[in-house]
UniProtKB/TrEMBL annotation:
Family matches, as SUPFAM superfamilies: TPR-like
Keyword Zinc: no
Highest taxon of the lineage: Bacteria
Keywords of the record: Repeat, TPR repeat
TPR repeats: 208-241, 378-411
Matching InterPro entries: CellSynth/LPSAsmb/PSIAsmb, PEP-CTERM_TPR_PrsT, TPR-like_helical_dom_sf, TPR_rpt
Protein name: PEP-CTERM system TPR-repeat protein PrsT
Keyword Repeat: yes
Pfam families: TPR_16 (PF13432)
Amino acid sequence: MSENRTVRHHPRWSRPIRGIAVAAFSALVLVGCGETPEQMLASAKSFLEKQDFDAAGIQLKNALQENANLAEARFLLGRVNLRQGNVAGAVKELERALELGYPRDAVAAELAPALVRAGEFDRLLAEFGDPRVTAPATIAIVQAALGDAHLARREIDKAQAAYLQALGANADEHGARIGFARTAAIKGDLKAAEEAVREVIARAPQVADAHALLGDLLVARGDLSQGLAALREAVRLQPGTVANHYALVTLLLRQNAIAEADAALDAMKSAVGRHPFTRYLLALRDYRENRLVEARDALMQVLKESPGLLVAELLAGVVHLRLNDHEIARAHLDRVLQAAPGNLVARQALVASHLATGESKRALELVQPALQVPQPSARLLGLAGQVYIANGDFERAEDYFERAAKAAPADVRARTRLGVARMAVGDADAGFTELEEASRMDEGGIQADLALVVGHLRRGDAKKALAAQAELERKQPDNALVHNLRGGLMLATRNIPAARAAFEKALAKQPTYLSAAVSLARLDLAERRPEMAIG
């Protein structure tokens, strides 16, 4: 007896033994001790009323072991699975309930959204393309799900029509109104999108998705402070949603609000754990603070665990580009473009990589598709100008620099582009003045200096072109492109030894710089030294 009392009251053992006893007792209760399937089903319903999904799920599974054709148990187990995040299990049970004859309206209200969450858009359209449901609330839920499926397939008009049908059946179907707002935004009608999402918030301020979409819309129209407030509210209302945290942190990083971004990242880690997006955002923060090696190492781990994460592939490409690891950078960027051919960031980074290694022809091939977009950005237009300079097409280069000036007149480097534009229309003196001022303002950049070199060269003023080139070399003495440009200048002035020295220096700075290697090969051939050109 005393031995038993010692064990029962020992502080290290009393709680575990008590916990085991309680668990064993609960298991006995849930097994049912001879209960019928119907009694187990009734017990499960009582647990559901208390929001005890674990206990309800056990009872429903017990009931189905006894009677696999109990339609209501299948239906309720599907609902439990859905609320516990087991979407595949939910779809399986709900479809079985439908086969067993459970009321279609009840099943449809759960199954249609579950199929959307599972990404089973074809199955959803096949099952509910003709909904065959009668209750207005269910019609609205099913039509909203159909809208989501069409939206995911980029069938914008069909999605919008489905959302409108849903709202016609039930004006309080918030998912449909949010979906309609998304389609309006995709079509460019940001005002209609904002009105729709604000109506959701007025009707149901607790809907986190509405605040998240409002935040995106406000940011899109430049209202960053209100956009941040909306995203913070979305996170507060639904802290377990990764997308809301992601939108908030990325916006804070874009604004260089590093302390706030760190706090938001800490909150994200607490809410969703070490999710791949959390680790990606940590790498993004390192990149923005110029900790490139740390960002690279973090991204390697992210991609090892989540190899299909395109944002991580893209950032890895950009990081390796900054580290001059061009082969690895291109592998990452190529994977992004294979999955998303329209991704301009990846394409621009690839162009920059090929420019950096002197592969100007390949850079030209890559930049041309990007220039087909309706409104190319100033950055893209400026990059195109640099590509045409590298290919020796100075007239096209000036044209793109002029377009860049018009695309961003308030840009910090507007003087650069304005100078090019003025030269393009014949006001050379004013153009050179603007470019020289821009060169002084932008100590780290070289676009103004490139434009000055090209402008003076086209005007036939080799002396001023060489002076601008010297300033370029002062700013970036280790840039192979800069020395390659000097080689071109020397060729233009027929100073072949100086040209050869400049091309050789470009190759010394970067042995893979193809443009300089080709220029040297041409010089060798011109000097009847083919063996040197081959070497």
